[in-house]
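Methods, example record. To illustrate the input and output format used throughout this study, we show the complete record for Class I SAM-dependent methyltransferase. The sequence lines were provided to the predictor; the line carrying structure tokens was produced by it.
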Amino acid sequence: MIGHVGDTVACRVCGGVVEAFLDLGAQPISQRFRDPADGSPEVFFRLAVGQCGSCTMVQLCQEIPREEMFHEGYPFRSSGSRAMTGHFTAVAERFLETELTGPDPFVVEIGCNDGVMLRTIRRAGVRHLGFEPSGDVAEAARAAGVRVRGEFFEEATAARAAEAEGPADVVYAANTVCHIPYLDSVLRGVDALLAPGGVFVFEDPYLGDVLARTAFDQIYDEHFYLFSARSVRAAADRFGFELVDVERLPVHGGQVRYTLARAGARRPAAAVAELLEEERSRGLTDEAVLRGFATRTARVRDELVAMLTALRRDGSRVVGYAATAKSATLLNFCDIGPDLVPFICDTTPAKQGLVTPGKHIPVRPPGEFARPYPDYALLFAWNHAEEIMSKEREFRRAGGRWLMYVPRVHVV
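The corresponding predicted structure is encoded as:
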């Protein structure tokens, strides 16, 4: 079966040979939470990740149909986190101060979700358009006054938008471009839509941080690519763009914001050469580094299951906190079910009363967390640890402990 370590597939960017270096086993669709009474078969796929030997792009070995992941009932809301709402407000304000200062500026967002970034753009009176194929979250954006096309961004839809709206000064995406296997169509779409002096700005999880933190749960169906500066530069070059800036971001466990412009249109910032050199010196694309990541991933799995088993044996009560998409990878790879984690508390109403994909752990409202507090809370949303721990101070005062697995299994 394609996807086991050592298997090869064709690179979705350049057509080169991609060899799998990590196999996380059979996995469900990460955001397909189910009614506990639903006995219908679940969709599973082989979650394995590999690297292209030609362009170095790290990518999944099996592509999941986009309609399976991004559908009418898609439950994620970007504005659900106070920290991320602040982050996207700052992004909008930065664009308003820099790129959107002309006589009739226009910005397009790929995967605008509930419109958290574009709301600030709208309030400033700037022309904007969001692409969002997930129906419910697109409606939430429209309810906030954001202009949204309910379709996937690709070459054909971008060309239609360009014809109707004119060229964009900024095309922006956050936690979206890495979701799209057909990166060639996306870049051709940006080419059709972007003004001659415009920029394509996107931010996604950074391969360097995923490897350094052993954050293997950042690998799931929606994260088709794990970008590095080197692989993004290679992809940009193939489609007439140039990587002109990079910026490290602390959000979501470590991301990079990439800025692309038409080749020769802007002078690359020094940060590009600096990050490329850092990647070279770290051996970020070396086979030994990738194999080492796979070895550490297996160690985290074994240690976490051993700890949860010991806590259950000792009579300690453990519950999960935040039913994230990436928790599907952890739970299914580690074979953690309700016997070890009886339920998970989550603030998203659309997930409450359902069970998690694959392992069928019940998802309960956040009020259940304190009835009574557990001895330990397994934190799946570790990338929001500071915000969550600040909100849950009473849990710590009651003697509760946080169980973490990034970058290693430990108790806080």
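Annotations derived from this record:
Residues 288-411 form a domain with the Rossmann fold fold (CATH 3.40.50.720).
The mean pLDDT is 94.
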